[in-house]
Amino acid sequence: MSFQVFGIPVSRGVAIGRAVLVASSRVDVAHYFVAAAEVETEFARLLKARDAVTQELQDLKTDLPPDAPHELDALLDVHLLLLNDEALVDAARQWIQERHYNAEWALSAQLEVLARQFDEMEDEYLRERKADLEQVVERVLSALAHAQDKGAPGAAAVVARDFAGEDPLLLVAADIAPADMIQFKRSVFQGFITDIGGKTSHTAIVARSMDIPAVVGTREASRLIRQDDWVIIDGDAGTVIVNPSPIVLEEYRFRQRQSELERARLARLRHTPAITLDGQRIELHANIELPGDTGPALEAGATGVGLFRSEFLFMNRNGELPSEDEQFEAYRAAVEAMRGMPVTIRTVDVGADKPLDRMSVNELRHEHVLNPSMGLRAIRWSLAEPSMFRQQLRAIYRASAFGHVKLLLPMVAHLSEIRQVQEAIRRVKQQLDDAGQAYGLVELGVMVEVPAAALMLPLLLRHVDFISIGTNDLIQYTLAIDRADEAVAHLYDPWHPAVLHLLASSISQARAAGKGVSVCGEMAGDALFTDLLLGMGLNCFSMHPSQIPSVKQRVLRADTQRLAAAIPKILESEEPGRTALEVLAQQRLH
Ligand code: PEP
Ligand code: MG
């Protein structure tokens, strides 16, 4: 039966493929294809792990002390029964043989099928056996991990090159932690659907950086969609169509081809400088998460990196932080790749919906911190961990010897934070001088993402070289909307008059003070806002590389003076969104 699920569109385009349901807790299970010749070996690997766990459970049974409660013995029997039921490992064989899934993936895919059947059972006792099944699968997964050869693929994002699965795969999960998303950068999935999340939640941001269609905040997609269902993701409308009819499918395939053609057309702008009709040169920079993202940035024609979210280097490390040398290598790689163009490295911004480990937003919200967005996040965390912070500063300064590095501080709200950072920088430079290590000139900037920073900008500007406006957080904190909470996503409004006033005044004050200003939040990459920001006087935009061509197209058709004339009317309007679309369109037509 065909049906639709509605959510929040976060990454554009159409994806058509089969649903792969993954429990949030198992998103980090390795997902890769095995070669045709390896299918039987892969199944044998699964059988071996099953046998090892059978043995383990039997040993546990034998070793039970005589006074152990009878229930424990019975429980082990249940686990042995589930483990050896043909609905589990034998059925997983089908996923390996027909789809070439690796053993871990096949097992967790089958678990999702069975878990759904358990959920639908009338009998409460039987329904509760789902937890036992999950425990059994957990044991087999860990047996597989132990047996894993050192060199074999283990990460979530490995694709065997000799198997081009016929059907594209779309990931469906209740939630995906940013730390897991980053593992999917080169993954087998061509689209994402999650129950949780908002337009600028970090999961959505990573999906956008991967340039694949995604819909978040669907609330129940992971409950309604079944393993292997055919699914269409409409990343523009925020719609998910499950088991579409042939006619709907054909319509979307047509749209998919159209958008590929449009992309190819825009890609031709790559070498065209971004200069407006009235001769203003506009910098279009890239937001990156890992040094390897400089490749797509250069391909898209970025003229610098406006935001290197360094916290992604700190994730997926089982609590261990990257050493100074490791960080230095990562920053140097990005700086060298950009060949003299500026690379703006933001100091680590963990906290809020970016925990260091792979906690999902839901876990974080409910179990750990009272209000993570307002807690020990970003620069606050760095200043609370001085030795970690100095290590990061040293790594960044050392990388500055290899190119043009700018240092950006996230979530600044107090002058004292800048002063403390300046003191830390002074000490770091002294240490590098003492060690005879080279470093270059590094400009210091702050992100304007807390209303306090925007409102006290004249004071902050005296102490920094540039500012970068993080609209994702600026909107979140101005409107008191948790950016990761789908329940209030409809109130998250970039066109809100308060947001527009803070944006316009920040841009004009920075320009008047002769300081650099850019916007690196998601507004910068959405072509809907390009005219508005140009009219406000912005000349540096930083965004995902895939967004550069469409923003550049807008820039090439813009006359900044005409757009500037329209801004007062927008700022005075009670409905700035509507007014902006009307008056800015007029400025373009004339
Ligand atoms: C922002 O807040 O706009 C921003 C760019 O930072 P992040 O999205 O990483 O919080
Ligand atoms: Mg931010």
Automatic annotation (TrEMBL):
What cofactor does this chain's UniProt record say it requires? Answer: Mg(2+)
UniProt-annotated binding residues for Mg(2+): E449, D473
Q: Name one GO molecular function term.
A: metal ion binding
Top enzyme category: transferase
Report the residue ranges that make up the Phosphotransferase system enzyme I N-terminal domain in this protein: 7-129
- Please tell me where phosphoenolpyruvate binds in this chain: R309, R346, N472, D473, R483
* Catalytic function, reaction form: L-histidyl-[protein] + phosphoenolpyruvate = N(pros)-phospho-L-histidyl-[protein] + pyruvate
**Where found?**
Cytoplasm
Q: Which residues form the active site?
A: H202, C520
Q: Which residues form the PEP-utilising enzyme C-terminal domain?
A: 264-558
Which protein family is it in? Belongs to the PEP-utilizing enzyme family.
Q: What is this protein called?
A: Phosphoenolpyruvate-protein phosphotransferase
Protein source organism: Roseateles depolymerans
Q: Lineage, please?
A: Bacteria, Pseudomonadati, Pseudomonadota, Betaproteobacteria, Burkholderiales
